[in-house]
Amino acid sequence: MPEISLNINDRNYQVTCDDGQEEHLRKLAEHLDERIQGLVGAVGQVGEGRLLVMASLMVADELFEAYKENHALKATISGAAKEGPGEGGAGEGAEGAAAAALEACAQRIETIAARLGEA
User: What pLDDT tens digit does each residue of the chain (119 aa) get?
Assistant: First the structure.
């Protein structure tokens, strides 16, 4: 198992990972470090442990929201598939639900892009 060095909040951490996972783990650490640096900019250096907990909660919140959204999309698609074929033939209900889900995702991406453009 390879051991790699990750830099988070200007501190190095030695972490062991499975073969081939090094780059993925570095990207995860980079994402976490970006979150921590954002927190440092907002609240200052309030202690390493506290920053790690705050950043972890932010990432966990995003993950939880993604799980909820994924579950809702699956339920929508499943419900549409159970309704059976629509006027246009077999599978139209599921295809319509998938199209609606994609449209909702596209709108969310546009909203996020607009917010980033304003920042």
Answer: 899 999 999 999 999 999 999 999 999 999 999 999 999 999 998 998 999 999 999 999 999 999 998 888 888 877 766 766 554 444 456 677 777 788 888 788 877 777 766 65
Comparing C-alpha atoms, which of 15, 13, 11, 17 is closest to residue 36? 11
Is the CB of residue 31 less than 8 Å from the CB of residue 6?
A: no
**How far is it, in rounded angstroms, from Cα 1 to Cα 21?**
10
**Encoding tokens for residue 88?**
């246009």
Range(s) of the domain holding residue 40: 3-118
- Please count the structural domains in the chain: 1
CA distance 39 to 24: 23
